[in-house]
Amino acid sequence: xxxxxxxxxxxxxxxxxxxxxxxxxxxxxxxxxxxxxxxxxxxxxxxxxxxxxxxxxxxxxxxxxxxxxxxxxxxxxxxxxxxxxxxxxxxxxxxxxxxxxxxxxxxxxxxxxxxxxxxxxxxxxxxxxxxxxxxxxxxxxxxxxxxxxxxxxxxxxxxxxxxxxxxxxxxxxxxxxxxxxxxxxxxxxxxxxxxxxxxxxxxxxxxxxxxxxxxxxxxxxxxxxxxxxxxxxxxxxxxxxxxxxxxxxxxxxxxxxxxxxxxxxxxxxxxxxxxxxxxxxxxxxxxxxxxxxxxxxxxxxxxxxxxxxxxxxxxxxxxxxxxxxxxxxxxxxxxxxxxxxxxxxxxxxxxxxxxxxxxxxxxxxxxxxxxxxxxxxxxxxxxxxxxxxxxxxxxxxxxxxxxxxxxxxxxxxxxxxxxxxxxxxxxxxxxxxxxxxxxxxxxxxxxxxxxxxxxxxxxxxxxxxxxxxxxxxxxxxxxxxxxxxxxxxxxxxxx
Length: 495
Known about the structure:
The chain is mainly α. Helix content is 84%, strand content 0%. Helix 10 packs parallel to helix 15 (360-381) and helix 12 (285-312) runs parallel beside helix 17. The longest helix has 36 residues, at 4-39. The two termini are 40 Å apart.
């Protein structure tokens, strides 16, 4: 079993490279989205949302849950790991080709089914992403398992630059959905090539049905879990795509995407390392909980004020990221932002607990319960105005957080008191920031000037954090660590 100090060292190094990678990616993604939102109409984003829903559904089956198996399972040797990787790779790739063939044959019928009649050709071309993603998924799993986020940096950097150099020029020329589809295909092709080149493990013609059976016995629940997660993420697109206009669907989906792009600057940095860290200490219950609380505490310092800030400045966020033509989406952007911290710190973190403990069936059960609430609420909401639909969708997310909180307490004996203790200091500091923001907004009416007051709110928040011992110590540890690394590099460069 891995020692706690050794794990902490690996986590620290992995987090550093994950941070570097994702800061670059998440700075570029919003810029790309800001430009595309001004070049393409909401209707285009609505159509692409339905196409991506189908592609992501197929990708669940092409992966078959093997990625999580590679990261989470305890192998006796590297040879055993690589044998399992070969079995997973060829299984994924063959299934992905079969799924693409099905979409190729029935592309027009599928397009009609999801509410995008006339877009069968786009569906056919976009589906090429399925085998491309299957080709690199196992390599990425091995990188994550070994905390080797350093070697993942360059492929991911190139991947996030492709929308800037490919998708945006195509959008300017075509002004239609083809620009987004072709950009995504080239990004996935880049991953397939670069991750294969960087990986120590390369696919070999090896197959073992006994190994497949063992992997599938674990992955069947992961597969069902991923299917249920897909439903919670996409069932609204499937239902609403048939009940509301493409314009409103574009507003709805792009609002969620926009908020996710802001908050995933933190989550995509932390979650891969978080899952790997939990997986390595899954058999040590106290160490497992300590790891969970440590990640939750540190993430809350940034996520909670970010959530409050998105809601407070929802009009500014909409104007900056999407433009004036999207202002009717500002309420939904604010509501999604407001609940985002709780969703990540409780619900998303809980999902990683279920997987790391080898209990994907628990996650599956949680998703099913949530879907039972979600479907009727969406059907009811679609009969009213767009704003009413958005408020009801916000209520669904609150329900999702509560369900996961109950499961963490009942099945895994996490204490709600300890989680509140983890987050109450950033929460109070954020409330102080919000009060300041509300007051200052009363005197500032221009969107441009309001944008500038965000800096003042950030200063107020971090100043408030200094009054809380635990939060102050965490922030100072971040500062000392960054200072130490900068001085070390400066001394090294001057030797």
